[in-house]
Here is the input.
Amino acid sequence: MHRGGFRRTIERRRTTTAGQTTTISVGADGNLTGPIRSNREDTVVAVTAAGGLWALGSGGIVLVPALVHAVSTRTRRRQWAYEWTRLDAPPR
Here is the structure.
C-alpha cells in the first residue's frame, strides 16, 4: 500500500525487480526530480562552497591593501611632482 494517497507509475531501472521498493525524490510541484544526492556528494558540494568562500575572502584581503597602496602611491607621486615644480620655480 502506498502512503499519502499518491501513486505514480515510473520507469524502473534495470537494477530493480518488479515489486521492489525504490526511493524516489518528488519536488514541491509533484514532479519527479533527479536522484537523491549521497552523503559523499553533499560533502563535496559543502567543501567546494567553503573553498569558494575562502577564495573570495582571500581575494578581498589581498585586494584592499593593494588598493590602499595604489592610492597612497598616487598621492605621494602627486606631492613629489608639486614639490619639484616649487623647487624649479624662480625665487620670488
Observations:
- Helices lie at 39-88.
